[in-house]
Design brief:
about 160 residues; alpha+beta; Glutaredoxin; 2 domains
Length: about 160
């Protein structure tokens, strides 16, 4: 099945829902890990809205990605509770460690970095999510150990 066919199937499965745009966008991102470039046009045409409308929703919600994520998708919570616990210093360390900014992917495709605005782990901030695992009370040292463990696991998988 081509990417276009898969997106069309997703649209057909969700278009009957009230406010179907968000469920369609979620389903497409769940399927591909991001929203492929041609998905905006296909969705807009199917729902009879403008591409600008679709883009407006995508750009409003930080959850949606328009590029493939890294193998390890790293999210740093930037909500107030995590800010009070030092997330700004932690995010600066992570950016330096990975050599990328928010919304970027490392050259080797291993890590991507995204800001999030609450992971629901407020009592144990600062909080980082890697893929679907949440880590609380993070420090620069803990992040370094986590990234080293992930890099070793990746090398082990490739061997």
């Amino acid at each position: 099945m081509t990417e276009r066919e898969a997106i069309s199937d997703i649209i057909d499965a969700h278009r009957h829902l009230e406010g179907s745009l968000l469920p369609i966008l979620h389903a497409v991102q769940d399927r591909f890990g991001y929203l492929p470039p041609n998905s905006n046009r296909l969705i807009a045409d199917a729902l009879r809205v403008s591409e600008a409308d679709v883009h407006g929703v995508i750009s409003f919600y930080h959850y949606f990605r328009q590029r493939p994520p890294g193998k390890h998708a790293v999210s740093v919570c930037r909500a107030e509770a995590c800010q009070a616990q030092g997330c700004r210093q932690l995010e600066a360390h992570i950016k330096t460690r990975l050599g990328i900014d928010f919304h970027d992917v490392t050259d080797d495709g291993q890590f991507s970095l995204e800001p999030v605005y609450c992971l629901g782990n407020c009592a144990t901030g600062p909080t980082v999510r890697v893929n679907n695992t949440i880590y609380g009370r993070m420090s620069a040292e803990k992040v370094d150990r986590l990234f080293e463990r992930l890099a070793v696991d990746t090398v082990r998988l490739l061997s």
